[in-house]
Amino acid sequence: MTTQQHPQDSRKLSRALRTAGWVLLAAVLALSFAGYLSTDLRLQWENIAALCGF
Predict the structure, then answer these.
(1) 22 membership: H or E segment, kind and range
(2) pTM for the whole thing?
(3) Which has the closest alpha carbon to 28: 20, 17, 18?
């Protein structure tokens, strides 16, 4: 026997993964922005770019 997914199931999974991705991106951006506004923690974009290989 083979198991087949219904198109609705794959659409629900795709939507859930996309939503989770957006929530994760928003959380990272919010934490980054909060860190940037903090006087104790200043992001140095040059160091971040160097870590990414740019």
Answers:
(1) helix 7-37
(2) 0.55
(3) 20
Residues 6+ apart with CB under 8 A from 36: 42, 43
Query: Angle at Cα 17 formed by Cα 14 and Cα 23, nearest 5°?
Result: 140
| Buried-state track 11-33, b at ≥16 Cβ within 10 A, e below 16 | eeeeeeeeeeeeeeeeeeeeeee
Q: What is the distance, to the nearest Å, from the Cα of residue 41 to the centroid of all Cα atoms in its chain?
A: 21
What are the pLDDT tens digits along the chain (54 aa)?
Answer: 556 666 677 888 899 999 999 999 888 888 777 776 766 656 677 766 776 776
Contact 29, 43 (CB under 8 A): no
